[in-house]
Write a structure and sequence with these properties.
The complex is a heterodimer. Chain A contains 12 helices and 14 strands. By secondary structure, chain A is α/β, with parallel strands linked by helices. Chain A has 2 domains: about 220 residues, P-loop containing nucleotide triphosphate hydrolases (Rossmann fold, 3-Layer(aba) Sandwich), CATH 3.40.50.300; about 70 residues, YebC, transcriptional regulation domain (Alpha-Beta Plaits, 2-Layer Sandwich). In chain A, a hairpin with a 3-residue loop joins strand 1 and strand 2. Chain B has one domain. The model of chain B has no long low-confidence stretch (mean pLDDT about 90). Classes of the chains: A alpha/beta, B mainly alpha.
Amino acid sequence: MNSAIEAIDLVKTYPKGVRALAGVTFSVEEGTIFGLLGPNGAGKSTTVKILTTLTLPDEGRATVAGLAVIREPEAVRRVIGVVGQKPGVDPEATGRENLLLQGDLYGMPRSDTRARADELLRRFGLEDAADRLVRTYSGGMQRKLDVAAGLMHRPRVLFLDEPTTGLDPEARAEMWSEIERLAHEEGVTVLLTTHYLDEADRLAARLAIVDRGRVVAAGTPDELKSELLGDALVVELDGTIDGALAALAQVPGVREPVLDGRVLRARANEGARAVPAVLAALESAGVPVVAATVARPSLDDVYLRYAGRSFATADREEVNA
Amino acid sequence: MKLALRQTLALTKRQLLALWRQPWFVAITLVQPIIWLLLFGAMFKRVVEIPGFQGGSYIEFLTPGIVIMSALFSAGWHGMGLINMLERGIMDRFIVTPVWRGALIASGLLQSIVVIMIQSLVIIGLAFAVGARFSASSVLLQLALAGLLGGAVTALSDGLALVARQEETLIGAVQFVVLPATFLSSGLMAANLLPGWIQEVARFNPVNWAVAASRAAGSDWALVGTRAALLGGLMLACAVLATRAFRVYQRAV
């Protein structure tokens, strides 16, 4: 197996003592899509900034396409494409001008620059808008142009930092198929960060769950999900919730009960059969129930298991922090 | 080398096109110095009557001062555009390419100097229209010195933008430096009529180098030569400093 990306013990602390990364390690196989999944502020973007030579880590090392990121940033820059979280395309230039400028910066032969820009504009459905100023583009179009700009010089490794944040469902689906096509048909290694579980589940061959600057779990989506035996039980509670956990401990076949705000989560081999017993136990403990659902394991559950809090809660906490 | 030149020209073209597409910005850049020229010209019209003031028309005296002052202003604000690029992620997109860091600074300098040339020509043209007369060498000299000083200040402004990364800091710095630097020179008042301590400070003030040299066309070429060389050196030093500021930026983000 050839690693296209190798990150080893990356540590980064920002001024004022904000610890963004507390030792991040993972590797990405060539030609695959790798997902870094985590809530806002988990350290995903910092990891991408280090791997793309935008910033230096305090400790640790990394290679991209076999090149040392810290020692040979120039060489790394030639082989990577980067689509950051912020748009990055110039709103006061046309779509085509944005792409041609990339060709100039990479020193691509001029005729190739023009041909490649045409090809990418066609591929991303931007031909009609090619000579319009980017500030007249919709959010989805800007995002597409952004990805096209990152692909101009035919990078071997592409970094996508939250590529679908803020996109409507249609634009999101298009972006997904384009990312899949890049990896599967063109052999580009893709590292994408996301805080959407469904996105990581759908796209990533392997993924790492990042929380508070650490990788808390890594593997294929299926591996991560199968580590959680059984179905997920989610019970929404109302009124007094004291005693809910204790009540659940009495029910046979129900494991790993966790109270997350007013939501009680647990695992059960056969979720549907466990529900009546769970409801009865809660009722006799005097805990009112609003709703109860049973679901097959999802990445949300994986996240809950490793980070000790649900994904949505973590996201809110980070935003409020 | 060839690639660095291509990168610089491509980036300069981008900046000039962006400017061209914001006519309001262009208009304001041009109108402000015109107001300075007419306002100061009217306000201090009779300054020439002070004993010891050399030369006949105040507008003729004032024009090089306004040309240099306007170059200083527009160069000082140049970093605002860079902060805007940082905020939009445009600069990050450039930095992750193998682009020569110097090209990112040099393109800003070139764009800024083009703007300053146009601005200076407009001021000189207007001065001409209201009766001032300049020799061709004086006009060329004013343009060249405005370009050199403007280049140096543009680089400083861009470097500060990279280090501070917020508009407030840059606004504060420009306010703090630009007006005092103008008044601590012979820009608006004949050097021999300035208080002694200002004359002393002005000797070390690059704005004064540019103003004094612009007025010395045909009379004191030695002064022109030394001041132009000093300003050229300053511009180069500032550009190198601004290029190094990318390292500070990359450490901080």
